Automatic annotation (TrEMBL):
This is Cobalt transporter CbiM. It comes from the Bacteria. NCBIfam families: PRK06265.1-5, PRK06265.2-5. It is a multi-pass membrane protein. The chain crosses the membrane at residues 7-29, 35-56, 68-91, 97-118, 130-154, 166-188. Keywords: Cell membrane, Membrane, Transmembrane, Transmembrane helix, Transport. It comes from Pseudodesulfovibrio alkaliphilus. The lineage of its organism: Bacteria, Pseudomonadati, Thermodesulfobacteriota, Desulfovibrionia, Desulfovibrionales.
Amino acid sequence: MHISEGVLAAPVLLGGAVLTVIGTAIGLKKTDNDRIMTVAILSAAFFIASLIHVPIGPASAHLILNGLLGVMLGWAAFPSILVALLLQAVLFQYGGLTTLGINTFNMAAPAVLCFLVFRPLLARAASWRFAGAFVCGFLAVLLSALLTAASLALSGDAFTHAATALFAAHVPVMVAEGVITGFAYTFLAQVKPEALASPIK
């Protein structure tokens, strides 16, 4: 779901960059020193998952894992995703430096939003955790696809078809991410609950 260089309009790029700076600043402020290793590991997981992608016009379809980062890191998903996307842009030319802000926002904002909305459900009894984590994984990709499609659509009518194709291509990814997030979260809640952003009751 990387948007390439030279595609988006300047106001979209600027807006995404500003929002990413704000989100990253909040994420860094809320990240304790003892959580830095967890943030780094999940940033690496996000980096690797996004390497396997199918190009679709100016963007791509691939596993994102932003829902998993959201339920595990909360606001720290912003700096985690930012670092991973920066390395992908520099090392593999996925996305780009000018689109780094909007790409980060499109993936990190839904992750944080899903965490904030479903945090009470994630912290409940084990029978609710899988459902809450599944919804977070599914919705995070859904919202990211919508934001990316909107970014393309706002940059000109020529990208309307690309935006539609991008969203359609990510429907199966939404289901897969929901399942992965559900199983990963419930497993970690049992064996390593301190790794999660939301306390387990």
